[in-house]
From TrEMBL:
One annotated GO molecular function: metal ion binding
CMP/dCMP-type deaminase domain mapped to chain residues: 4-120
Biological or metabolic pathway of the protein: Pyrimidine metabolism
GO BP annotations, alphabetical order: nucleobase-containing small molecule metabolic process; pyrimidine-containing compound metabolic process
Keyword list, A-Z: Cytoplasm, Hydrolase, Metal-binding, Zinc
Alphabetical list of PANTHER family matching this protein: CYTOSINE DEAMINASE, CYTOSINE DEAMINASE FAMILY MEMBER
Subcellular location: Cytoplasm
Name of the protein this chain belongs to: Cytosine deaminase
Cellular component terms (Gene Ontology): cytoplasm
Reported cofactor(s): Zn(2+)
């Protein structure tokens, strides 16, 4: 299947976020696509489920995409602005484009990756903004743990 629009790609990430929430985790999802719209891998934040601090949504999607010769022609789609850790992954591997579903609840390193050549598209989808805001309000300690705040 080819995912032609950002909305179609974001729907894959949203489904992952919903899956994470249903599992009792943090509702953030991501997916890695080729620039032609082929899904390479998707995933969701699994920190709670796996007891693994490194398993953010973007890293899970990256892991599930498997080894690629190059990432310059890929698009990372994420339901929430990537944190500094995930922004580092984007920069380290030269992912060419990032689509952000929500940067109102959290603004990670998206400006930094843009300054270093990554094309960033911010959607600010109302449903994703509402979902994340409700999670943060209901789970402040878990949210702060996820973003490295005390």
């Amino acid at each position: 299947m080819i995912y032609e629009t950002d909305a179609e790609k974001l729907a894959v990430a949203r489904a992952e976020a919903e899956k994470g929430a249903a599992e009792g985790g943090i509702p953030i999802g991501a997916a890695l696509f080729t620039s032609a719209g082929v899904l390479l891998g998707s995933g969701h934040n699994r920190r709670v489920q796996d007891g693994d601090a490194a398993m953010h949504a973007e890293t899970n999607a990256f892991h599930n995409a498997g080894r690629q010769r190059s990432y310059r022609d890929t698009v990372m789609v994420t339901t929430l602005s990537p944190c500094w850790y995930c922004s580092g992954l984007v920069r380290q591997f030269g992912i060419g484009r990032v689509v952000v579903g929500d940067d109102r609840n959290f603004l990670g390193g998206q400006d930094w990756i843009a300054e270093h050549g990554c094309a960033v598209t911010v959607v600010n989808d109302p449903g994703l903004i509402t979902m994340m805001a409700a999670f943060i309000e209901g789970n402040p300690a878990l949210w702060n743990e996820d973003i490295g705040e005390e």
